[in-house]
Design goal:
alpha/beta; Rossmann fold; 2 domains; six-stranded parallel β-sheet; about 15% strand; binds ligand LMY7XDAE; purine biosynthesis; methylenetetrahydrofolate dehydrogenase (NADP+) activity; multifunctional enzyme; THF_DH/CycHdrlase_CS; NAD(P)-bd_dom_sf
């Protein structure tokens, strides 16, 4: 049996049609929604992602402002820039591309962003709201994964979902969103014992470990749903995920590819969050 493919690129295109429509309505009624993107340094992968974000904004009728800072910028310089964007009434969303150079505290930077403009959903306030099931800006990658599962009509209620990886930007919020869908969640990580025994029980596996081809076919229950969040380069420099796609696709029921899976959905959810932030700000002004 070969797994059914959940194509993030196609789904993104469908969702972006609605985003474009909504952006145009907001532009007509108020002004063009606007996302500010801060890129510190010259990390090659980050440059690609930021370029894609700016281009995606343009395609959907969202204004974007790209602020590039040199790699040796001080933490204070980044904070000052964020504070200026926080004050700017024409800016709805702010994101700082991660990772940052080592001498800058990511946590400090994220906490400087106005919660209402935190379109990455990384601010402590948004993290706390998510964990309490309150309205918030949801982190883009895990939110994109949920949309992909929904698009394939995968009902999560009562299912055993295993998240591989406990990062703050993917693993932990992913577990939270799966819980919200009434899945039974295992959050596995590098210290988890007998991992294969656990993965073999899982109905849904979300691989977010950052290790090329980590999830092998013998770790997957026949018919399971396998979502690959990994973005790695193999020894030939070719893009690959955390899942051994060629072999796992013969065991899994559903699978996502890399590229063309979760990656494009991350950017689509960022566009969606920018519209939500813009709408919230327009509403707030109307209610004043
Ligand atoms: N501030 C943030 N920083 C980072 C985030 C984030 O959500 N917010 N996530 C990742 C990188 N990322 C977005 O920034 C991201 C990664 C990959 C893709 C993507 O579309 N990948 C394509 C392949 C692109 C390529 O050729 O390299 C795919 O999978 O099809 C989008 C966004 C870390 N930093």
């Amino acid at each position: 049996m070969t797994a059914q493919l959940i194509n993030g690129k196609d789904l993104s295109q469908q969702i972006r049609k609605n985003i474009k429509e909504k952006a145009s309505q907001l532009t007509e009624k108020y002004r063009q929604p606007c996302l500010a993107v801060i890129l510190v340094g010259e990390d090659p992968a980050s440059q690609v992602y930021v370029r894609n974000k700016v281009k995606s904004c343009e395609d959907c009728g969202i204004k974007s402002i790209l602020q590039r800072l040199p790699a040796d910028s001080t933490e204070k310089e980044v904070i000052d820039l964020i504070n200026a964007l926080n004050q700017d009434k024409e800016v709805d969303g702010i994101l700082v591309q991660l990772p940052l150079p080592k001498h800058i505290s990511e946590q400090k930077i994220i906490e400087t962003i106005d919660v209402a403009k935190d379109v990455d959903g990384f601010h402590l306030h948004n993290v706390g709201a998510l964990s309490c099931g309150l309205p918030c800006l949801k982190p883009c990658t895990p939110h994109g994964v949920i949309k992909m599962l929904e698009s394939a009509n995968i009902d999560l209620e009562g299912k055993l979902a295993l998240v591989l990886g406990r990062s703050n930007i993917v693993g932990k919020p992913m577990a939270q969103l799966l819980l919200e869908k009434n899945a039974t969640v295992i959050l596995a990580h590098s210290k988890t014992r007998n991992l294969q025994k656990l993965t073999l029980q899982a109905d849904v596996i979300i691989a977010a470990v950052g290790r090329p081809l980590f999830l092998k076919a013998e770790m997957v229950k026949p018919g399971a749903v396998v979502i690959d969040v990994g973005i790695n380069r193999n020894s030939e420099g070719k893009l690959c995920g955390d899942v051994d796609f060629e072999n796992v696709k013969e065991t899994a029921g559903f699978i996502t590819p890399v590229p063309g899976g979760v990656g494009p959905m991350t950017i689509t959810m960022l566009l969606e969050n920018t519209l939500i932030a813009a709408e919230n700000s327009f509403q707030k002004k109307e209610n004043q």
